[in-house]
Amino acid sequence: MLKTLEIVDPAFRADVLNGLAEPIPAIPARWLYDRRGSELFDEITRLPEYYPTRTETALLEDRIDELARLVPADSAVIEFGAGSATKTPILLRAAKPKAYVPIDISGDYLRESAARVDAEFPGLAVHPVEADFTNHVDLPAAIDGMPRLGFFPGSTIGNFVPQSATDLLRHFRSILGTGARLLIGMDRVKPVDRLIAAYDDPKGVTAEFNLNLLRRINRELGGDIPLDAFRHQARWNDMMGRIEMHLVATRDVEFQIEDRRFSFAKGRSIHTENSHKYGPRGARLLLLAGGWTPLAEWTAPDEDFALILAEA
Ligand code: AVJ
């Protein structure tokens, strides 16, 4: 039988082995997104309980004309993450930039979404950049001299603890340069029952998304974690203003990854994701701390979600 060899990502390996050995075990959320994880996230965005994607998309759609008036002509749009098939075209159609630069760590996703945009916008110069946007990024020389609009939708900023979030915003500022603009989506604080429902849906898609991380560890790192020994949990951490995803041991369990043994007592958890929620002041303060001055803000009905345009 032919076995497809997956090349072990040394960063994944290090994050898992070190993260599981921490006093409070935690694995960074970015590792949730292998192919299956990305498919499951896609499915999450279509769940009735998961409001962020459809709320942000509707908000963008409703207010795009106003927004486009604040974007200089002949701009380059730089998107942090491969473009979403629904949100990106709304912005490109209205803002009519000269160039579009999606930046993503996953080459496959990047090429797919770049090809889609290229086909839909014949006059637009599309320059995909395969890179981890938290690290050094070289923008293509082709956009030199164009006014820049960064686009960071999806409330992805919420995955970062505030210290890393401000570091990231400052990093965006150094990539885009002084005078650049940034359109960013941030999820708002709301009643806990709605938040929990969004991150622990009755169909169990989010549970599957979370547990898929253990599958990935077993497959890519040769682990033997019994999946039935962990269950998905969404918690609201009020002090930190965030939803946390955990994988909680349902019984005492031992497992091995490479030559390392781990033991989890019943009830101990692996923290797998943070999703910070911001109020109006918190959102603006985060941007200011990251070197961005808010210029305009649009919020969805019931203040469920905010899009903020800021200037470097
Ligand atoms: C893609 C990071 C915005 O935090 O809401 C959805 C990921 N996790 N359900 C979020 C996620 C569980 C999502 N982000």
UniProtKB/TrEMBL annotation:
Give the signal peptide range. none
Which BP terms from GO are recorded? methylation
| Enzyme class, UniProt record, top EC level | transferase
| Domain of life of the source | Bacteria
GO MF, one annotated term: L-histidine N(alpha)-methyltransferase activity
Q: Which residues form the Histidine-specific methyltransferase SAM-dependent domain?
A: 12-311
Enzyme Commission number, as recorded: 2.1.1.44
InterPro entries linked: EgtD (IPR035094), EgtD_Methyltrsf_superfamily (IPR051128), MeTrfase_dom (IPR019257), MeTrfase_EgtD-like (IPR017804), SAM-dependent_MTases_sf (IPR029063)
What are the protein's UniProt keywords? Methyltransferase, Transferase
- Chain segments annotated as coiled-coil in the UniProt record: none
NCBIfam families, A to Z: egtD_ergothio
Identify this protein by name: L-histidine N(Alpha)-methyltransferase
Organism this protein belongs to: Sphingomonas brevis
